[in-house]
Specification:
InterPro entries: DUF4374. This is DUF4374 domain-containing protein. The protein has 415 residues and is mainly beta. It has four helices and 34 strands.
Length: 415
């Protein structure tokens, strides 16, 4: 994969950005303070990117832009430097998380003048591997369980900027084997938390990612209670592979009608072996709590190649990155629109085939249910946003993220 020396860092930065809801708060002129919303004041918004610069500017920045259809943005005129590796947006706030044992979390908002500011106190958590929004006011983070075998979760109050609970789980009890359950994301489904996982046995004395995978031919999701964050059960399926990958933060989504869809690349264990199952999409009907055996969308057959990553757009349509070559889980990708209501695939024109170098797609879906904005690196090493119309599968190139070595987050904040 391209830029392998930077793969872990850039992937981690991209893994955890989830899309924010409108805020109940508004930032005042003074960094670190929050004031009430003025109902007479018009709501404004800015797009927000997180990226790492090149060369002498090789730091991580949060930058904003009013318009992503044209022009450029860089850290030289409106960027805030931040020491963090993952970012989640909740309650109209960007939470920047450091990847160390202390796991420092810092909140950032946009003030009345349209500038990004640090908007409250920092909170110490722990090294966070997965995170996801729950409701409008909370998010939950999970520790890196690949070598420890203990799954730690914490609940973060995004309004009062404080921890609101913790839990621990023996991950071998989830799998029922000698393998750990390694989480690949954290998603709200009804009043539960769904954590897809793969099975992994760490090699003693090896690096955290060195070890043996369990079956590549099954799908598993651990169901946890909320807000207690206690393990309840595992649901599984055997028609495709496991969902996502370590810290990919994608692979499952509950949509407007209450149904939940999960997708798998049916990937391999390094160069050793591949899943024998096709790459596809499975479904959990609203309120069922189990996979729907009557539904399977074989993306590999429909698109001619395996799924790399995916994100939801709206109205039953997903933006999917699939590999350009059949039967592989590496190399260049192309974009398609997968319609889970009609089981159809539409190629996206206007986005060139390109290398994929992160753990998740860098996207922001608009609220119209048909537009999704996607950031990619071209063959010249430059990053651009593409505005994709899911109704006709067309895309137009927009804003240039100037001087970027990697773009790892994309969202929108109001002020």
């Amino acid at each position: 994969m391209k830029k392998t020396t930077n793969f872990l860092i850039t992937g981690m930065l991209g893994m955890a950005v989830l899309l924010g809801a409108c805020s109940k708060n508004n930032t005042s002129d003074t960094p670190g303070t929050v004031g009430p919303v003025d109902p007479e004041k018009p709501v404004r918004s800015k797009y927000v990117f997180v990226y790492t610069g090149k060369g002498d500017a090789a730091a991580t920045y949060i930058v904003s832009a009013d318009d992503i259809t044209k022009g450029g943005v860089s850290s030289t005129n409106n960027g805030v430097e931040v020491d963090a590796w993952s970012f989640i947006v909740q309650n109209n706030t960007v939470f920047a998380q450091a990847y160390n044992e202390q796991g420092l979390v810092r909140p950032f908002r946009i003030n009345d003048q349209g500038k990004i500011i640090e908007a409250g106190r920092s909170v110490t958590t722990f090294r966070t591997g997965v995170s996801g929004k729950v409701g409008n006011d909370f998010w939950v983070g999970g520790g890196d369980p690949r070598s420890s075998g203990i799954g730690e979760l914490y609940r973060f109050d995004a309004v009062n900027l404080q921890l609101a609970g913790r839990s621990t789980t023996d991950l071998k009890k989830i799998t029922g084997t000698g393998f750990n359950a390694v989480w690949t994301g954290l998603f709200e489904v009804d009043n539960k938390m769904y954590l897809p996982y793969y099975k992994f046995k760490h090699t003693p004395g090896g690096r955290v990612y060195e070890g043996e995978y369990g079956s590549l031919d099954s799908t598993w999701v651990a169901v946890f209670s909320y807000p207690e964050m206690k393990y309840e059960k595992t649901i599984g399926d055997d028609r495709t592979g496991f969902i996502g990958d370590w810290s990919s933060q994608q692979g499952l989504k509950q949509i407007e009608n209450g149904d939940t869809y999960a997708w798998s690349g049916a990937s391999g264990d390094g160069d050793k072996r591949m899943s024998t199952k096709p790459s596809g999409i499975v479904r959990i009907k609203k309120g069922a709590g189990q996979f729907d055996k009557s539904y399977f969308f074989n993306i590999e057959a429909a698109a001619g190649s395996k799924i790399c990553r995916g994100e939801y757009i709206g109205k039953g349509k997903f933006l999917m990155a699939v590999y350009t070559s059949a039967g592989v889980t590496g190399g260049k990708i192309k974009m398609i629109i997968a319609d889970v209501f009609n089981n159809t695939v539409t190629p996206v024109t206007g986005v060139p085939a390109h290398e994929f170098g992160g753990f998740k797609l860098i996207v922001y879906p608009e609220t119209d249910g048909k537009t999704i904005n996607y950031v990619m690196e071209d063959d010249a090493g430059e990053y651009y946003a593409y505005i994709i119309n899911a109704e006709n599968g067309t895309a137009k190139r927009g804003i240039h993220i100037e001087g970027a070595a990697s773009v790892t987050a994309f969202s929108k904040l109001t002020y």
